[in-house]
Each structure stands twice: as C-alpha cells, then as structure tokens.
Design a protein that fits this description.
Length: 132
C-alpha cells in the first residue's frame, strides 16, 4: 500500500517519487490503516460470506499489526538505503543517513537472505506443527 503513492507520483511525473508514505510517520499511518481494513473485512466476513484463502480470517489483530509494522518499517528502512529522494524522518528532518549504506547488490543479497530465512522458519514451523 505504501508504494501506491509512488506509483501515482511516477505516473504524474511528480517529485519526489518517494514522498510522505515513505517516511516512518507515513508508514505508521499505513500500519493503522491496514489494521483497520483487516478488522472491517473480518467483521464483514462474519456477516457475509467471504473467501478465506490462506486462513486470513483466523489471524489475530495483534498478528496483523505486528506483520504490518514489520513490513512497513522494513520497507522504509530498505528504501532509505537505495533511493536518494527518501526522507524517512520527515517531517522532523529531511536527512537520510542510510542512503548508500549498502550497495544495491548487497541490499538485494540481504533481502534474498532474509527471504530464505523466512521460508526456513515457515518450513520449520509447519514441520513442528505436524508433530503436535
């Protein structure tokens, strides 16, 4: 959801491409919006039939909040490293101390490593659940 703002800015040729939602304040608002959307959809699903792929209706609000926060704030962190127009601490500061901290190749390898770690954790959890 954070990148929708960037897509609109790209389409409209507006700068900076990475604007308000690519700040920690904007990301925090998106976490709140994600949680509110989840709660509204879950309430709607309780009254009307909605498909439940991946058992999303079984998630707790806390799990959704944690997942949304991890996703949103890591998005800002990683984009801060690679995009010169990022202002992650806006509106407090226009500084971006993380820009260039890693090369793009290093950042991509880090993301790949984290994906492999995440898949391994999911596999171990599923394997462990099979023994219960």
């Amino acid at each position: 959801m954070i990148d929708i703002e960037s897509l609109v800015n790209l389409i409209r040729h507006r700068q900076p491409v990475h604007a308000f939602l690519h700040s920690y304040v904007g990301a925090a608002l998106m976490v709140g919006a994600t949680l509110a959307l989840f709660l509204a959809l879950r309430e709607f699903a309780a009254r009307f039939w909605l498909p439940n792929p991946l058992r999303w209706q079984d998630l707790t609000p806390m799990a959704v909040a944690i997942g949304a926060a991890l996703g949103a704030f890591s998005h800002i962190l990683f984009d801060s490293i690679m995009h010169a127009d990022m202002r992650p601490l806006a509106p407090i500061s226009d500084a971006n101390a993380l820009l260039g901290l890693l090369s793009l190749a290093e950042l991509y390898l880090l993301c790949l490593g984290l994906a492999v770690l995440g898949i391994a954790v999911l596999c171990l959890r599923r394997l462990h659940a099979g023994y219960d």
